[in-house]
Each structure stands twice: as structure tokens, then as C-alpha cells.
């Protein structure tokens, strides 16, 4: 599912900086959710409404870095008086953005049953014919659309999965705007002075979706102003539990608890990404916390994202719980249990082992299953160019439990030794051209 949104924003800054911020968020979402097609060609369905207009504007900015070709597709249904004006609007937008336009006129029976469903089927039939293998079709659905759909399905379906909302991707159809709210889309459109059309049929309450949008949702918004934020987090958690999360890598997590002192969560398949561990993190915080207060889902999400990027922290939670994240691992403890004097590690005291990749994997697995481990899991290695290493000063500032000293008799060889995340080393090692060679490794473990 992978629905995400910027729900918290500060005061408006300069226009360019602000819009670039939205674009950076949108672009990051596309990369993270793997919505860049292998062919680097995208077809954008553009109705002329604000959602699809902003979608085409944002997608056009992906050239040439992420996409080679962007094509707009518009359908003239011949059912409303505004159809000709919408064609004109879309043509002008495509000219402005230098995007080729595929225009299709549909021959629909006005008196036929389920006219909207027939029109939708015709649109997708043409879109599927246009897209070649490996291409993607972008449509403009956003977070509000997904919430409305989720709400409607809760009244119509007894199945859990439809209540998640609109899928992020379904076959070749992707919905990149599921990281933006309707309000944010309007904001972008106004700031960029984009033109769009409003479909008057969206006000007709005989359609269930319009009744939800125009009657039910405004009442919810007045009473529960953070409803979209809670929907996003709830949908993400449910998607993970149902096994349909786009970002979920399918790996298992291992949680180690040391009484009421520490909790460490590892990505047990050693592939690094911690997305999917949110519920375990929540359980770990409640296990350690002295407070009955709730846990901020946004703070957990920040820590998960930090773990996927590298060293981050600390993150403060209620009840005196503090969290740290590193590649493939998250560590939770009580603030009062962090030692004032950290363990000193000297290069001359390291226990070096010559290992191949399989031996290293078994060794790591054994360490993660120990009752007591230090955080983060790091090791020293000889040269291996593909593995990012820590700056010693940055690591010593971050590490809550120990610091590394390179002064003394071994300082002359310190430049040849690199300090790396133990889990990141495994991830890079197995993908490396050197995956069959052995490495001399020294891991730091609980003494």
C-alpha cells in the first residue's frame, strides 16, 4: 500500500523553495515505492481536474533524471458540455510542459446501464493498449480519494483489504499522488498558477462516493481534524499485517528483550530495511515505558526511516524511553540506563577473524540471538571499497555504549582499517564482485 503524506508543515516559505520541497517529497516517494518504470516511459491519465493536472506537472519534472519519456492521455467522453473545454485546457497544459498528448474520443451509449463503469472500462482498455511491457500508467488519485474509498468499502464489504483504500499500484497502473492530500495538491496548483477544470457531477449526491465526500467527510473533519494522518498510519500497519505493503521486503524481524532494560529489533534476513517493524517498535516502547501515554506514530516512522538511511538518533518517547536506529537494527532503552562512561575500544584489543560470506552470516546470526548485545552492531574490516564507513568522530558522538580509540601503538595502521555497520557490510558484501573472497573482520560484541 505504502500511503504516505506530509501531514505536518510549518509556515509558508518562498514559493520556489516550498514547491521544490513538495516535489522532493513526491520524488522520494516514487523512488522509495519503486514507481519508476524499467523502460523509463510513463503514460499520465489527465482528465483536466486538479489532481491529474498537478500529477502531469510533477511527472514532467522527472525528465531527464528518472524518466526518458512522459506522455499525457486524455479522453473526450462526449457526455458533458465541459468536454470540449477540457480538451483545450489539457492541450494547453501539455504544450506548456512540452509533453506529447494522446487524445481519444469515446463513443458511449448515453442510455446504457452503468455508464460510469463502462466509461472507466473503456479508458483502461485504451491505456493498457498504449503501454508496452515495463511502462507504467500514472493516475491522479490522492490520499483523500483513498480515505473516501476506504470509508465507502467499510459499508459495502466485509473483507479487510478493500478497507485499506486505493492500491498504490495495480498491474501497470500506479498512483504517485498517494503521498499528497487534496489540500496540498490545490496548494501546488495555485502556487504554480496551473489551470484546471471542476467536474460539476462530483456534487451529485445520488452517487455513493459523492455522498461520502460532500456529506460524511466534512463532518468527520470538523470533529476529528487529524483523521487523514490517523488513516495513513492505520492503513500502513494493516497493509503490513495483510502482507500487501509495497515497501515491505518480506523479511522477518528478530526482537531481543533484556528484562526491562533494553529492546533491540533486527532485520533478521540481513537485508537492512526496517519498514514493517513499526508494530514491534511500538511493543518495545510500551515494554520499557513507565508512562501509560500513547506513542507518536510519526516518531516511529522517523526512526524507521532513519534506520534505512544509516545512523540516526536519539528519538525520545514517553515514559523516559529513548530510541536509536542504524542500518538493519533499532535499539530502545531507558534514558536513565544509558551509561555516563562508555566502554573504550582499542584497536590493539580487537579479535580479528578471517571469514567468507557464509561464515560471516552465521556469525552475525549467532550474535543477534545472544541475550545481551551492544548497539549498534559494528565491525572493523580491511579494504573493501563498496562499503560506506563511519567517520570515527561521528560514530563516537552517536554511539550510546562505547567509543573507539585509535591512538597508541596501532595508530599507524588505523588508516587502513575501516569502521562499518556489521549488517550493512553483509548487505554490500553479498552484492559485491568480491562476494567470494574472505575478509579479515573484527566485530564489537558485548564484553
CATH hierarchy class name of the largest domain = Alpha Beta
Strand order, sheet with most strands: 3-2-1-4-6-5
CATH architecture of the largest domain: 3-Layer(aba) Sandwich
- Per the CATH scheme, the topology name of the largest domain is Rossmann fold
Kindly give the count of domains.
3
Distance between the termini: 43 Å
Spans of at least 5 consecutive residues with low confidence? 1-15, 408-414
Structural category is alpha/beta
Order of helices and strands: HEHEHEHEHEEHHHEEHHEEEEEHEHEEHE
The percentage helix is 25-40%
Number of helical stretches of at least 4 residues: 13
Percentage of residues in DSSP E strands: 15-25%
Biggest sheet record: 6 strands, mixed
Shape: elongated
What Rg is obtained from the alpha carbons, in whole angstroms? 26 Å
Rounded average pLDDT: 79
Kindly report the name of the CATH homologous superfamily of the largest domain: HUPs
Give the tally of β-strands: 17
Q: Can you give a write-up of this model?
A:
The chain has 447 residues and is of the alpha/beta class. The chain folds into 3 domains: 15-242, 3-Layer(aba) Sandwich (Rossmann fold); 253-337; 343-443, no CATH class. Helices cover 38% and strands 18% of the residues. The chain is built from 13 helices and 17 strands. The strands form 4 sheets. The chain has a 6-stranded mixed sheet, sandwiched between helices. A 5-stranded antiparallel sheet has the order 7-8-11-10-9. A 4-stranded antiparallel sheet has the order 13-17-14-16. It starts with 14 loop residues before the first helix and ends with a strand.
Amino acid at each position: 500500500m505504502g500511503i504516505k503524506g506530509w501531514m505536518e508543515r510549518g509556515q509558508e516559505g518562498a514559493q520556489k523553495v516550498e514547491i521544490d520541497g513538495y516535489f522532493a517529497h513526491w520524488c522520494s516517494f516514487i523512488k522509495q515505492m519503486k514507481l519508476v518504470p524499467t523502460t523509463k516511459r510513463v503514460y499520465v491519465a489527465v482528465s483536466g481536474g486538479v489532481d491529474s493536472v498537478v500529477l502531469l506537472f510533477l511527472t514532467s519534472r522527472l525528465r531527464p533524471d528518472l524518466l526518458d519519456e512522459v506522455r499525457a492521455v486524455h479522453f473526450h467522453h462526449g457526455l458533458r458540455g465541459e468536454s470540449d473545454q477540457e480538451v483545450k485546457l489539457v492541450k494547453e497544459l501539455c504544450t506548456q510542459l512540452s509533453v506529447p498528448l494522446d487524445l481519444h474520443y469515446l463513443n458511449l451509449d448515453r442510455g446504457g446501464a452503468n455508464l460510469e463503469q463502462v466509461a472507466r472500462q473503456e479508458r483502461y482498455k485504451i491505456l493498457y493498449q498504449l503501454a508496452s511491457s515495463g511502462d507504467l500508467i500514472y493516475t491522479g488519485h490522492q490520499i483523500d480519494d483513498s480515505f473516501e474509498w476506504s470509508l465507502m468499502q467499510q459499508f459495502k464489504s466485509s473483507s479487510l483489504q478493500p478497507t485499506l483504500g486505493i492500491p498504490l499500484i495495480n498491474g501497470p497502473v500506479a498512483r504517485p499522488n498517494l503521498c499528497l492530500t487534496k489540500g496540498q495538491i490545490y496548494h501546488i496548483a495555485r502556487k504554480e498558477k496551473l489551470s484546471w477544470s471542476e467536474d460539476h457531477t462530483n456534487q451529485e449526491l445520488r452517487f455513493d462516493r459523492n455522498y461520502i465526500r460532500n456529506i460524511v467527510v466534512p463532518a468527520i473533519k470538523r470533529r476529528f481534524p487529524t483523521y487523514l494522518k490517523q488513516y495513513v498510519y492505520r492503513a500502513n500497519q494493516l497493509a503490513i499485517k495483510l502482507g500487501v505493503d509495497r515497501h515491505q521486503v518480506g523479511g522477518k524481524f528478530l526482537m531481543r528483550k533484556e528484562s526491562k532494560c533494553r529492546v533491540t529489533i533486527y532485520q533478521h534476513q540481513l537485508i537492512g530495511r526496517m519498514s514493517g517493524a513499526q508494530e514491534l517498535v511500538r511493543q518495545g516502547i510500551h515494554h520499557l515505558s513507565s508512562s501509560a501515554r500513547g506513542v507518536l506514530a510519526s516518531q516511529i516512522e522517523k526512526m524507521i526511516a532513519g534506520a534505512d538511511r544509516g545512523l540516526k538518533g536519539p528519538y525520545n518517547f514517553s515514559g523516559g524511553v529513548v530510541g536509536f536506529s542504524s542500518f538493519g537494527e533499532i535499539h530502545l532503552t531507558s534514558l536513565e540506563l544509558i551509561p555516563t562512561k562508555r566502554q573504550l575500544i582499542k584497536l590493539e584489543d580487537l579479535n580479528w577473524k578471517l571469514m567468507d560470506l557464509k561464515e560471516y552470516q552465521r556469525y552475525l546470526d549467532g550474535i543477534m540471538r545472544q541475550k545481551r548485545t551492544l548497539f549498534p552492531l559494528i565491525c572493523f574490516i580491511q579494504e573493501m571499497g563498496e562499503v560506506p564507513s563511519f567517520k570515527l568522530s561521528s560514530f563516537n558522538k552517536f554511539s550510546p555504549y562505547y567509543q573507539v580509540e585509535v591512538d597508541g601503538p596501532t595508530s599507524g595502521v588505523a588508516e587502513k582499517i575501516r569502521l562499518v555497520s556489521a549488517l550493512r557490510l553483509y548487505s554490500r558484501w553479498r552484492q559485491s564482485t568480491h562476494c567470494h573472497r574472505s575478509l579479515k573482520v573484527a566485530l564489537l560484541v558485548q564484553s
